[in-house]
Amino acid sequence: MKVTWPHLGHSDIVLKSLFRDLGVDMVIAPPNNKHSLTLGVKHSPEFVCLPFKLTLGNMIEGLELGGDTIIMAAGSGLCRFGYYAKVQERILRDLGYEFDMVTTALFESKIVGVARLVKRLSGGAPLSKVIAAIRLGLAKLSAMDDIERAVHRVRAIEINKGIATKLFQEAINAIDYASDMSGLKKAKMDYIAQLNDVAVDTKIDPLKVGVMGEFYVVLEPFANMDVEIELGKLGVEVKRSLFVSHWTKFSLFLNAFGVTEKEKTHRAAMPYLKRDVGGDGWESVGEVVLHAHSYNGLVHLSPFTCMPEIIAQNIMPSIKADIPVLTLISDEQMGRAGMLTRLEAFVDLLHRRRSASLAGALG
């Protein structure tokens, strides 16, 4: 058995750690790139969303490199994403690939289901070893997300642009190599310290812009064309409430972690949207209401044809909260130059808006 899987942000580090500790053979597809997208677009229905196309491209690349077992999330509570595995499996079999498709219904089976799946893939490893591997993997996920929050803060005010991004990549590699909790803790503390030592311009009061929207395009840099890095270059401090560690803990444990923040977002959305519409649409509406007075603006990321985010986008103009929202639609036609132009114009608008507000307060 050679396991492969689609990419999502930096979650590869977690899966590599998990399967390496349990002696499972892995085939890791190349990071998302134009070739991945081309493959996915070629073999996908035209109007399906970008996450479907990219994950299908990853699967094809993994199979071409020798993988024979694909791991994919599935199940209810995930919008159309929950049914991707069924459709993608049929497409791949029609293309002539032979493989096993292994899915896990995160919202239904939670941590018990994941443990059973991992035990099965490992050929029956002792449960204690499986739990230890999962624990280390989740700890790595949390460490990466904590470091990324520090990167968001430093990136906006660093004097030499690019240092924080470079340190983040080094931190990811260090976390990947960490073989136990002690090594992981040391790596995290080391890179947090290095980020705190980066030369910054203390005179800058950066704009604070929230990044929200559909889970996949928010967390997969290739899908959003590195929007967070580009905002940092423009002197913006990114405030992202959605991290893989939070989503994973909510999905696997529900009442133990993360529910309070999610319910808080749902309550904020209630005057405008009273129920879950699938995906992250409910959360997107709530984010606008929650952060109207704490952020200068919001960037709303959505895959083309994503119904939950279309619903959210159409509700946003009616929200009484006074905060500018820039919606960026992600698909294979999206160009970096166009995205950068829109970001620059949006940031300029936010600067002018803040200056006018300060002038009005002083006047």
- The N- to C-terminal Cα distance equals 70 Å
- Poorly predicted regions: none
User: Could you tell me the strand content as a percent range?
Assistant: 5-15%
Integer average pLDDT: 91
| CATH architecture annotation name of the largest domain | 3-Layer(aba) Sandwich
- Written as H for each helix and E for each strand, in order along the chain, the element string is EHEHHEHEHHHHEHHHEHHHEHEH
Cross-sheet strand order for the largest sheet: 2-1-3-4
Largest sheet: 4 strands, parallel
Q: How many strands in all? A: 8
Q: Helix coverage percent of residues?
A: 55-70%
The CATH topology of the largest domain turns out to be Rossmann fold
Write the layout of secondary structure elements.
Layout: E1 2-4, H1 12-21, E2 25-26, H2 34-43, H3 50-64, E3 69-74, H4 81-94, E4 100-105, H5 106-121, H6 127-155, H7 163-177, H8 181-196, E5 207-213, H9 215-219, H10 221-224, H11 227-233, E6 236-239, H12 244-253, H13 259-269, H14 281-290, E7 297-303, H15 307-315, E8 325-330, H16 336-362
Parallel strand pairs: 1-2, 1-3, 3-4, 5-6, 5-7, 7-8
